[in-house]
Amino acid sequence: MGWLQLFGFMCTAGISITQIESYMLNDNPNGTIINTTKGFTYNTNYDSKYYSPNYNTNFNTNRNPNYNSNFKTNYNPTSITNYGNSGNINYNNSGTYGGYYSYGTLDELECPEYWFHFQKSCYRFIRSPLKSYLDARKLCQAYSPETGGSDLVSIGSTEEHGFLINQLNKLDPQHRRWYIGAHQQSASYYTNPDGTQFVSAENSILAVDLPYGKDYLAYNFSRTLLRWSFEPVSGAELLLYICEANIGAVQRLVSQGRDYKYGVDVEDPQRIPRGPYFIKQPTDAIFDTSKRKLYNDITISCLASGYPTPTYKWYKEDYENDRLVAHEIDPLQDSRYTVSGGTFIIHNPQQKLDHATYHCKATNKYGTIISESVQLNFGFILEFVLKRSPESGDLNWGKAVYCDPPNHFPSVKYSWSRDYFPNFVEEDARVFVSHDGALYFSALETIDRANYSCSVSSEFSDSGRNGPFFPLRVNPH
């Protein structure tokens, strides 16, 4: 190169590095910045509708980035990141789908609720309602209509196939059929919705004699092979389906954690308008009939919060013509009933009238909630038979002595006494009481000769019954 050419190049470079003062950035109608170090010209994609003056210095190292006004971000399909002086990173996926909204780096992104994360994609398994192939595609695409970043699942690797099978094993014990996105183009050749070739494991497509027109694939569990495989289907069948979305394309679906306090300027959180919600659900209750003389009422309660404070109603559930019907409890119609807040009290409960299922309802101006149904039962232990015949066994032989308890509800605990109550039988490796109340001797000895009595006690109260004493005879050889 001659010295004249070199001089001309230096003059040209000297013109290109003319510095623009910082205050001129906002006045630059073309949004162009001259880099005083490298001599490169950068397009800032400046548009006053989308950027405040503080962000006019965003730059992209690619000389001709494309601005996409639909997404309000600097989208460049050939560049991984667009850097701004605020530290924000606009991630542009170079994989299956196009650009999408900016929510941070790939490692920071999370899948929305009910979606499952694998590599750069999120997957959702839709179980209801059942759809045809075309309808399933439309619904999957609706998760990210602006960017086209979602569709029926495209299986591009055996690792992805293995991930989907693991999820199906967890989510679908009934082994139903699930649409995927694969579509047959020619014999034994399928393509995915993203245009890539469908990847399947060896012998993973079920070889069955099917009529013409089965151009789509669905996951199906083979009863003979005992594994998930792909079954050709026509696409008209109503099946479950699997959606796949680029993890960035569905970031707008990620919950921002806004609870009932969002947007409400109230100092006292207890006065924030809110529908009712249960703090305490009612639980099953048992009335001890043996204690009726001590206390003759039973209480069931629920507790709800919300603002305004909820009001309560209690309902009794009955069957009418094989249909469960709830009837409101009205204390004015039956003086035995009392409803105070979320507490329901029955005075002098009667088994024929009150043995039933109940639930409570809490209501304020923002809604109504219904509690779980609970059962009101009546506990009792009847009397033992007053006299019992003797028991006998052979020395050094095993022996089982049964309790023969009276009728009772609910379950009871068993104990055995020797000669007098409460001289309880000591259990060891040779003598023990089983769960059903029988007294077992693995080998009778002469010291086992005595009078025995079985006792039962309720598991829900301190009431119980003692059985009659009877002799146990040990016969020598």
UniProtKB/TrEMBL annotation:
UniProt cross-references to Pfam families, sorted A to Z: Ig_3, UL45
One Gene Ontology term from the biological process aspect of the record: cell-cell adhesion
InterPro entries: C-type_lectin-like, C-type_lectin-like/link_sf, CTDL_fold, Ig-like_dom, Ig-like_dom_sf, Ig-like_fold, Ig_sub2
Secretion signal, residue range per the UniProt entry: 1-18
Record keywords, A-Z: Disulfide bond, Repeat, Signal
Gene3D superfamilies tied to this protein: Immunoglobulins (2.60.40.10), Mannose-Binding Protein A, subunit A (3.10.100.10)
Name of the featured protein: Contactin
Cellular component GO terms, alphabetical: membrane
Domain Ig-like residue range list: 276-377, 393-475
Residue intervals of the C-type lectin domain: 118-203
CDD domains registered for this protein in UniProt: CLECT
Keyword Disulfide bond belongs to the record: yes
Protein's organism: Acanthoscelides obtectus (Bean weevil)
